[in-house]
Amino acid sequence: MSTKAQLSDIEQNPCRDDFPLLAAHPEMVFLDSAATSQRPASVLDAQRAFYETMNANPLRGLYRLSIDATDAIERTRAHVARFIAAMDEGGNPQKEQIVFTRNTSESLNLVASSLGRTILSPGDEVVISIMEHHSNLIPWQQVCAATGARLVYLRLDDDFNISQDELEAKVGPRTKIVSLTQVSNVLGTQNDIAAVARRAHEMGAYLVVDGAQGAPHVRSSVREMGCDLYAFSAHKMMGPMGVGVLWGTADVLELMAPFLTGGEMIDSVTETDAVWAPVPQKFEAGTQDAAGIYAFDAALSYLEGLGMEAVERRERELARYLTESLASLDFVDIIGTKDGSRHVGAVAFNVRGVHPHDVASLLDGSNVCIRAGHHCAQPLLAWLGVQMGSTCRASVALYNDTSDIDRLVESLKLVWGVFNG
């Protein structure tokens, strides 16, 4: 049976041996992929191969090594465009609309600073949701304070959705930018980005999407979403740390000023002025992580080899099983919806009366790895009234199976027994 066919069976683990760290530690249960994924051997091999076969500074040399390094980056740029369906009418990847950054946080800071300071004036509004990661919240706080614009929050209904009524009430004539997460890193729920895009564009606003928790787990088409800018990270989708992506429509990227200045982002410089290089180089000051970008190409190939639809189905079933397994424990409180079918990757929860840090530390003693803390979403946890201001979070990826979740459940029973034995 092929690996792709086996993905549908979440009791089996057809991919674990592809990941050297997991293969070397069969005793370990890794349930923190929302923070960072593990990397398959093909990605690790690619990163090493770059340094062994084409190590040179891209864009800065006319000799073969430098040309090869440049070509490697451009191939990955085109691959990323295909992966998120950033294609022109002829079906060609719009690679010039792919900007490489260090991570999603840098991509969102770039947008807030460059787009925000370009178009915002006193009295304008920027709309975000209460569920945003700090990386899609603090930059907008800062730019609103600098420009005199007002930050407006979309609130959630009782089912943890952003309703159409809420959209129409908050996204109005004064709105210039809407910036929203595709998937909440705490609640695990997926927003209807296409509906938000329609409302934003009706009001003449731009839509920015934080895809950090979306791109790794669901098939994500910027064309179908209808967004104007889309940000995500390689390290959450089997790629190296230190590589981020910002996609934007051509007109928006042209409108935006550079975020960082220095080498490689200029066309010409005099003693008093500078002319910027065309997009995307305009936003890529300094030396890129060329080896990481090259390895990200291998990560995308790995995901595509499995099939993103198959990956999405497997991870949705795993998330459903995870939610239902946690809900079966009468001492566990799930933060957010208890409908497992609505969770993408992550489930936040608390063990009643036990601090999340204690839970995570004790689970580590059973070789179970989860996250504990505020998950860079303090306003959300405060709005939800979460005691102690933090939660546990378990998150799955394609290399997990039901035995990992069963181990978590059994270990949580041990944690409960320590405090209530």
**CATH architecture label name of the largest domain:** 3-Layer(aba) Sandwich
Strand content: 15-25%
Tell me the radius of gyration. Answer: 22 Å
SSE order, one letter for each helix or strand? HHEHHEHEHEHEHEHEEHEEHHEEHEEHEH
Instruction: Determine the CATH superfamily of the largest domain.
Output: Type I PLP-dependent aspartate aminotransferase-like (Major domain)
Overall CATH class of the largest domain = Alpha Beta
Shape designation: globular
Assign a percent range to the helix content.
25-40%
Overall structural domain count: 2
Average pLDDT number: 96
- Helical/strand content category: alpha/beta
Major sheet size, sense and barrel closure: 7 strands, mixed
What key attributes describe this structure?
about 425 residues, Aspartate Aminotransferase, domain 2, four-stranded antiparallel beta sheet, 15 helices, Aspartate Aminotransferase, domain 1, alpha/beta, 2 domains
Could you please describe the fold and organization of this structure?
The structure is a single chain. The chain has helices spanning 3-6, 20-24, 41-53, 64-83, 104-119, 138-147, 164-170, 193-202, 222-225, 250-255, 290-306, 308-327, 356-365, 378-384, 402-420; strands at residues 29-30, 98-101, 125-129, 150-154, 175-181, 206-210, 229-233, 244-248, 266-269, 274-276, 332-335, 346-351, 368-369, 371-373, 391-395. The chain has 421 residues and is α/β, with parallel strands linked by helices. It has two domains: 3-30 and 307-420, Alpha-Beta Complex (Aspartate Aminotransferase, domain 1); 49-304, Aspartate Aminotransferase, domain 2 (3-Layer(aba) Sandwich), CATH 3.40.640. The strands form four sheets. The protein has a seven-stranded mixed beta sheet with strand order 2-8-7-6-5-3-4, sandwiched between helices. A four-stranded antiparallel beta sheet has the order 11-12-15-14, covered by helices on one side. The chain has a two-stranded parallel sheet with strand order 1-13. Helix 9 (222-225) links the parallel strand 6 (206-210) and strand 7 (229-233). The protein starts with a helix and ends with a helix.
